[in-house]
Amino acid sequence: MTPYKIALIPGDGIGVDVTDATMQVLDAAAAKFGFALEPTTFPWSCEYYLEHGAMMPADGIETLKGFDAIYLGAVGWPATVPDAVSLHGLLLPIRKAFKQYANIRPHRLLAGVEGPLKAEGFDILCIRENTEGEYSGAGGRVHQGQGNEVAVETAIFTREGVERIIRFGFEQAMMRRKHLTSVTKSNAQKFSMVFWDEVTREVAADYPEVTVSHMHIDAMAAKMVMAPQDLDVIVASNLFGDILTDLGAAIQGGLGFAASANISPDRALPSMFEPVHGSAPDIAGQDIANPIAAIWSGAMMLDHLGQAEAAAAVLKAIEAATGQGIGIRPGLNSTSEITAAILSALEA
């Protein structure tokens, strides 16, 4: 029986609820398909920050290196810790330290789920650059609180960073419908985004089978609403990918269905898996959070670990539940009811 060491970081709010639901399903999948998950839980969170003055201990990154994968529930409790502190103290350092430069977010309607659009038959895979760009953290503030205060935020795009995420996007497109759309704003950002466009054209020469489109971020936002069925793989910078994938979550029925993976493609370091939704402190611990995005993210983790059959079975079980009308709308079913329905379908 193959064992996989999993670092569990439930985090804050409903992160705890959905992590528990996910592990119930993943453990059932492991038992069914003959492998084992060996989780170790870390209490790193805003509560941890209030007690220790940091979101994780100084050796946190070194500790996580020994795991096959990291599963994160959600991070944030803005009433007690500013989001900029929680984000830059846990999630972003993990992404950067482990070179998780490919953020993968699938957008499609699950069986039984009604989205807000007329279109239903869309299947979009958004690939977001995850470690540099607009979220590089380069900048600063001077003369704070004074009339002449200045704030500078510098987006950093390296050739290595841009080329590797675009190439990753092409590789995904080769496994799907062979259509890639690169998203920029090169008509207004004449340095970074023109550079991105140039690198995309260079990499495209290595993938003649893939049809390549170039779109500006505003046009892409409209496209995702008006004709999402025309899209296959989208590649975008850190900021643009972040925004587009929230729109993607909306058209697939809401954040309760939005899964994600933070991938270190060479597999030398652990990758991290998490639902896109936040910690929702106002509903934490009430058994009302939708765990589907979290469980879907867990299925992505199984697939990354090489357990493709188990991952497919979990996704099939999710759709069996939603196909029966379970978990398809906020507040319709409890966390435990949705989890039980997925477990029942998985074990059938």
What does this structure look like?
The protein is an alpha/beta fold and about 350 residues long. Helices cover about 40% and strands about 25% of the residues. The chain has 11 helices and 12 strands. It has helices at about 15-35, 45-50, 60-65, 85-95, 160-175, 190-205, 215-225, 240-250, 290-305, 310-325, 335-345; strands spanning about 1-10, 35-40, 70-75, 100-110, 125-130, 135-140, 150-155, 180-185, 210-215, 235, 260-265, 270-275. It has a 10-stranded mixed β-sheet with strand order 2-1-3-12-11-4-5-10-8-9, with helices on both faces. Strands 6-7 form a two-stranded antiparallel ribbon. A hairpin with a 7-residue loop joins β6 and β7. The longest helix is centred in the N-terminal third of the chain and has 20 residues, at about 15-35. It is globular, with a radius of gyration of 20 Å. The relative contact order is 0.18.
Order of strands in the sheet with the most strands? 2-1-3-12-11-4-5-10-8-9
Averaged pLDDT, please? Answer: 96
Helical stretch count?
11
Say what oligomer this is.
single chain
User: How much helix is in the residues?
Assistant: 40-55%
> What is the terminal-to-terminal distance?
22 Å
| Main beta-sheet annotation | 10 strands, mixed
Structural class: alpha/beta
Q: Could you state the order of secondary-structure elements as H and E? A: EHEHHEHEEEEHEHEHEHEEHHH
- As a whole number of angstroms, the C-alpha radius of gyration is 20 Å
pLDDT below 50 for ≥5 consecutive residues: which ranges?
none
What is the strand content?
Answer: 15-25%
Number of DSSP-assigned strands: 12
